[in-house]
Amino acid sequence: MSRQRPFRSAVGLLTVVGGAAPPTPRALPWFAVVGAGLGGLLGALWWGAGEVWPSGLAAALVLAADLALTGLLHVDGLADTADGLLPHLSRPRRLEVMAGPDVGAFAIGTVAAVLLVRWAALGAAPAGVDGVALLAALWCAARTAMALGVAALPPARPGGLAASFAGGPTAASGAAGLLLVAAAVAVGDPPRTAAAVAVAAIVAVAVLWFARWRLGGVTGDVLGAVGILSETAGLVAAAARW
Questions:
Q1: Cβ 230 vs Cβ 196: under 8 Å
Q2: What is the Cα–Cα distance from 125 to 131, expressed in whole angstroms?
Q3: Which end of the chain is more exposed for a tag (fewer CB within 10 A), N or C?
């Protein structure tokens, strides 16, 4: 296996750049790198758009760019996770619902609420250099949580996406995320960014615990939900009146 393939796998899974690539556990440490790069790019867009348009429109453009660059991967995971984990169902039925093509009321309500909160939080949080650092830190932390969760928890569905990453390097994944998040915190507004990352981490752990309780493990959809929910929680924390 080439040295570039794990990075290529991480990019192919987490973004639409370069097309799909086969998953490999060795890609997990690169999740943090992809997250930091994606967040920094969106932060720069946020900064530039805020110089031209009102904050609400700038936030909407950043939200649309994020959806486009990720191929709606995390939104799709959030929708399937909401339909599978929130209703009162048996564990086999939860997995069946999450694997199906249908979208239920839990998915529609959850996705609509999360996107609305995400847009409002972006419109209220500080942009500029602090905004670039904030998004780089949060997007990096979210994908680090995804990498650690899929490496540490059992896959809920044998043969699924999560099973492809089982046994990945947790220490390297955590170290990469910690270093990149620390760098982003130091560049931006340290207290605000650090608090936002802390809130994002708490929410990520809560979602992973909930999935472990409901499903017995994690799936690719759960990882998507972890990413978008932790990012959104961090943005809400950053937008608070300090």
A1: no
A2: 8
A3: N
Helix H segments across the chain?
A: 5-14, 28-52, 55-70, 73-85, 91-99, 105-124, 128-152, 161-164, 170-187, 190-215, 220-238
Residues 6+ apart with CB under 8 A from 94: 84, 85, 214, 215
Q: Could you tell me the two tokens for 66?
A: 């994020």
| Entry field: residues in the chain | 242
Nearest to 74, CA basis, from 229, 235, 236, 196? 229
Coil/strand/helix, residue 218? strand
The reported pTM is: 0.95
Question: What is the pLDDT tens value at each position of the chain, 242 positions in all?
Answer: 344 588 989 999 999 987 777 888 999 999 999 999 999 999 999 999 999 999 999 999 999 999 999 999 999 999 999 999 999 999 999 999 999 988 999 999 999 999 999 999 999 988 899 999 999 999 999 999 999 999 999 999 888 888 888 878 899 999 999 999 999 999 989 999 999 999 999 999 999 999 999 999 999 999 999 999 999 999 999 999 87
Q: What is the rounded distance in angstroms from the CA atom of residue 99 to the CA atom of residue 172?
A: 31
Residue 155, classed as helix, strand or coil, is strand
Minimal CA–CA distance to 152: which of 87, 95, 226? 226
Centre a 10 Å sphere on the Cβ of residue 183 and count the other Cβ atoms it contains: 15
